[in-house]
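call fold target=Glycoside hydrolase family 2
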Amino acid sequence: MNADHPNYGLSTSTSEHVPAAEPIANPLPRAVLRMNNYLLLDGEWRFAVDNEDVGIAQDWALGHTYEQTAQWPGSVEEHIAEAKGLCTPTSWHDKVVVWYEREFTLPDFDQQEARSMLQITFGACGYETRVWLNGTLLSTIEGEEVHYGEYTSFSYELPEELLHVNNRLTVRIADTMDAETPRGKQESHVYKRGGIWYQTYTGAVRSVWLEMVERNRLRSRVGVVSIVEDHLVRFNLTLRIHDPGAYTIRIRVCERGAEPGSAPLAASDFPLQLPAGQTHQRVVLEVPDARLWSPESPQLYRLEAQLIDAEGYEAKIEAHFGLRKIEARGRFIYLNNEPTYLDGILYQPGTATYEETKRHMYAMKELGCNLVRVHIAGVDPRIYNLADRLGLLLWVEVPSPHSSTARSRANHRAELLRMVELIETHPSVVIWSLYNEDWGAQDIATNKETRQYIVDMYHYMQIKYPQFLVVDNDGWHHISWEGRLKSDLLTAHLYTPDLGRWRELLDRLVQGEMEGTAAFPLVVGDPFFYRRQVPLLVSEWGGFGFPDYGGPQDAEARAANIRAYKQELRQRDIAGDVYTQATNIEDERNGLLDFQTGELSVPAGLLNSRQQQEVTPTGLVGQPAN
């Protein structure tokens, strides 16, 4: 098999100059661009279901007869169904183990062969993944023989001594209904499919690709922290070094659409001695007169970052970033030091493809939202780039486990760290939720260990990632410690189809009543006295069309209800709201846009309350708002 095979795409991932309004060319599911060649391994793979989990003991990686094929990317559920000749995805209810295998031809090395090596990256795969090259088990760059997690990418460097002209790649994927692993809204041994719980969608869910990378390089992950008052941008970089010695990090910041080779807005060199292995380094650059990023003006700049060795060889990555500042002060959320009301919508991508998710994002912007709450799920990382360009604020959540144990907390922490490391580039990402409605933290009201873990992770996020607001447990049961809320926002989930009851709940909420508003008390732990000291958000409401939230209605009636409910929200001291939800998903039929096409079923601009009212520190004024 060679590079001319239709399953391969061999090209350079550099981008052409495009107008500022157009997206940069990025065919791979990652947010940071590397200026090199890649070989896409999507397409037909050999496939087998290992019902008895005997493949490791029987050394399938050394040789096995595969009787089926499957298209990568795609879910295990789809592939099992296809193997059985079925048309719809197949459910499994305990454990699933599957194997994939294919060959690839070794690409030609360029003139920098001595400085380069092959790397294979899985855009997302899981929950448990093992990979063999020509029968030899590989370890990820982080040293894992088994990679856990299904929402983020991971990579293997391919040792030269294991490579042949023709190579065999074998992948084993395993998943279970284990309630202690991060599952989000997928069913488990605790929460069964139906209602708000959905079929699992696991396995080979994103692209896999080979690429030539430098032995000494910047990895494809960049953190950005801006404090807008001092015009400084702090870049958090990850370096992978095989040859220790003297290096220079060179940072250039350019206009987003600047021609290659044009003068940068700011640039600086940072000399340093680097040991072998993976290290993290922060560098700081002043960008005078930089324009700030906001939903109304999503100003982006291009970062060019180079790692230069002692002989002058340059390894380069590029990313887009924006300068913005998000804060919770008193009862308001401030973006770039201006109070900003959040007109949000709940978004559950489910099984949406990248193209479908893009259509959803444009449609949610058309609805008038300035915030999208990506609900305990993973999305293709290019979607974060799209939100940066569109000017959509994002509220990101860790997919939750379904039980509260020491092991579930360890798995939750590992998933959080994997996700945040790959998402800290984006100005659009402003809020993180650790948990939602006690899922995976069911004993939060009674177990001090559960509360202590959440408090510790809240403090960790505050210190390491100050560019985000953090919610401890969205919806209710926020944690108070010595009377201090361990959440940047006080959030409540309120569902009622009755407008009079809605007014009553909102009144009680803004008066600081911690019990009797949401399904459970809003705060647990020590007594907490609201007194408007943190922003208050109704982070789920509506759901009109779902039987449990108000029953089926036609589009016109739903739109009228939404307008009336939004009007009541804006007449009170509330900092933002999140309507449930963007699309229908399985049994939950309450979406405002079509899952496949993105077409709206309600008027455009319906969720935009900022055009009618402006939120200010002294009250409401009848002028346009941020």
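return ok
The first helix runs from residue 76 to 83. Helices lie at 76-83, 354-366, 382-390, 406-423, 448-464, 499-510, 555-570.
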